[in-house]
């Protein structure tokens, strides 16, 4: 289960009491959730007007940064060719606080449950607005970089796939460069030309019987089987140049396909070199790209969880007032008991906001736009760590 509920409730005599009450209600007797304190430092409160405006801005920023986190995760899956175990291994957060020289990457659940504010990246002496702007700039930068890197790598991958496709597939369409050899052709003759014909396996007998008579001027006994796949064979045949059109027409009538192919050593060499170059480039770019994705996934994810912390802080001050006195708590619900957990939390905190008593996210009350967000008497934000849309 990778869903977390980040909630806050006012401190009673002490914040510890608020925490103890939650623990008794949700874990001691009924195993509804696994809980952790969520540590938010003493941030600068600022004015009420600023907090109200910031509350809306942070909601939008939360959505944007979450989308960046998901994009980086999904692209990591695309680059690793959807190999699930490898993707999960690389979707980690840097748990080395305040940028120790050796980055210690830890799994996302561990990062969230042991959350520590990153003072170096987001100095708490700055205003809340400044901190949110730092995060916004950072996420926008990652988003733009991802677009540029993905575009370059996808082009390379696409070009390589096109070339690979040309070198695979049926004899009717595939490149013949790696199949034929110089000695298969009559070259540099003013009068003669070697043609390549695709013949279905069931038609080999017919071909041998008829090819010399498909048109005039076919060189007798000049056919040779050069290559075959599951369905067809590639035959060479030599004829006089002036008979080309007539030969093609008659071959088509007999369900033999003449491939338009000119033996050109330079072109074939260039194609092979291009394939090698693209393949080498892709390998060269792969390692640095995965490293970039890993580091920037971590950066974006950490930024996203800091936004959640900011939102809890701002919303708690707006709801519970000053001085700042609330306990932020991270609940990992037991999947089977989510409904029950909601009920227990409601009973615990309904005194905080009587208007919340009538509101349930599953109810559709005219005039109340609740389809977009759930409202509870306590501050609540969901964190869903399931970031990949795998097409299983």
TrEMBL record:
GO cellular component, one term: vacuolar proton-transporting V-type ATPase, V1 domain
CDD domains documented for this protein: V-ATPase_C
The organism's place on the tree of life at top rank: Eukaryota
Gene Ontology molecular function, alphabetical: proton-transporting ATPase activity, rotational mechanism
Record keywords, A-Z: Acetylation, Hydrogen ion transport, Ion transport, Transport
Pfam short name (any one): V-ATPase_C
Function: Subunit of the V1 complex of vacuolar(H+)-ATPase (V-ATPase), a multisubunit enzyme composed of a peripheral complex (V1) that hydrolyzes ATP and a membrane integral complex (V0) that translocates protons. V-ATPase is responsible for acidifying and maintaining the pH of intracellular compartments and in some cell types, is targeted to the plasma membrane, where it is responsible for acidifying the extracellular environment. Subunit C is necessary for the assembly of the catalytic sector of the enzyme and is likely to have a specific function in its catalytic activity.
Complexes and interactors: V-ATPase is a heteromultimeric enzyme made up of two complexes: the ATP-hydrolytic V1 complex and the proton translocation V0 complex. The V1 complex consists of three catalytic AB heterodimers that form a heterohexamer, three peripheral stalks each consisting of EG heterodimers, one central rotor including subunits D and F, and the regulatory subunits C and H. The proton translocation complex V0 consists of the proton transport subunit a, a ring of proteolipid subunits c9c'', rotary subunit d, subunits e and f, and two accessory subunits.
Membership in a protein family: Belongs to the V-ATPase C subunit family.
UniProt protein name: V-type proton ATPase subunit C
Gene: ATP6V1C1
């Amino acid at each position: 289960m990778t869903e977390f509920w980040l909630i806050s409730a006012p401190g009673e005599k002490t914040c510890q009491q608020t925490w103890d009450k939650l623990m008794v209600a949700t874990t001691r007797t009924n195993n509804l959730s696994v809980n952790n304190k969520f540590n938010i430092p003493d941030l600068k409160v600022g004015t009420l007007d600023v907090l109200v405006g910031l509350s809306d801005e942070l909601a939008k920023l939360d959505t944007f940064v979450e989308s960046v986190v998901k994009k980086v995760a999904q692209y990591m899956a695309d680059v690793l060719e959807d190999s699930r175990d490898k993707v999960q291994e690389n979707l980690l957060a840097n748990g080395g606080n305040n940028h120790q020289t050796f980055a210690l990457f830890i799994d996302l659940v561990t990062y969230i449950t042991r959350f520590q504010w990153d003072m170096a990246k987001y100095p708490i002496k700055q205003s809340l607005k400044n901190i949110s702007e730092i995060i916004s700039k950072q996420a926008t930068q990652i988003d733009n970089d991802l677009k540029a890197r993905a575009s370059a790598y996808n082009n390379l991958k696409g070009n390589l796939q096109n070339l690979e496709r040309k070198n695979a597939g049926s004899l009717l369409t595939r490149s013949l460069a790696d199949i034929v050899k110089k000695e298969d052709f009559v070259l540099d003759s003013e009068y003669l030309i070697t043609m390549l014909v695709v013949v279905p396996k069931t038609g080999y007998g017919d071909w041998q019987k008829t090819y010399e008579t498909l048109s005039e001027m076919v060189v007798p006994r000049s056919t040779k089987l050069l290559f075959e796949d599951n369905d067809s064979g590639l035959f060479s045949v030599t004829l006089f140049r002036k008979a080309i059109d007539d030969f093609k027409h008659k071959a088509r009538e007999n369900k033999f396909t003449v491939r338009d192919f000119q033996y050109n050593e330079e072109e074939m060499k260039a194609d092979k070199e291009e394939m090698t170059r693209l393949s080498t480039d892709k390998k060269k770019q792969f390692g640095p790209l995965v490293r970039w994705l890993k580091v920037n996934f971590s950066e974006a994810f950490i930024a996203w969880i800091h936004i959640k912390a900011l939102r809890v802080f701002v919303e708690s001050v707006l709801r519970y007032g000053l001085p700042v006195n609330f306990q932020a708590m991270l609940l990992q619900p037991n999947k089977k008991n989510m409904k029950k957990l909601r009920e227990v939390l409601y009973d615990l905190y309904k005194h905080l906001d009587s208007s919340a008593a009538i509101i349930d996210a599953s109810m559709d009350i005219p005039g109340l736009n609740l389809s977009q967000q759930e409202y509870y008497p306590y501050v609540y934000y969901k964190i869903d760590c399931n970031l990949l849309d795998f097409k299983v």
